[in-house]
Amino acid sequence: CFNSGSSCEKCDFETNLCKALHDLNLQPGWIRRKGRSGMGPPYSDHSGNDSAYFLSLSSEIRSSSATLRTNVFLPTDKEHICQITFHYWISQTGGTLMVGLQKHSEDTVTNIWQDLGELKNQWKTNTITINSTEKYEV
């Protein structure tokens, strides 16, 4: 859920990518799939629905890294907070999931959260709150 003030945009991948994310073609390695696709776990989404879609890294790229990038968000203030809640799964092969923040005046991405994957093969949920006085991407 991408929350800006009182509005909340749900992002569930059922029809395609949600509006918050760029076109999937720009992000090699990610595939949109269901739990019952025969690709191995997870066999359902975080709610237990095996016919719901989620994004997954393809097996060819698991040894390296792949990025998902949001569209541009507007600056935050007391009226416009940004809270992003997401569900994620780290497989038995392991890996690290990181969330980075790139402000428009900066060339670098600042790491604002990570999970090193100690608990594998289960859905987890996390919420991050972002404060930025300028436009940014996550």
Automatic annotation (TrEMBL):
Top-rank taxon: Eukaryota
GO cellular component term, pick one: membrane
Pfam families, per the entry: MAM
Domain MAM: 9-138
Membrane-crossing residue ranges in chain numbering: none
PANTHER family: APICAL ENDOSOMAL GLYCOPROTEIN PRECURSOR, MAM DOMAIN-CONTAINING PROTEIN
Name the UniProt record assigns to this protein: MALR1 protein
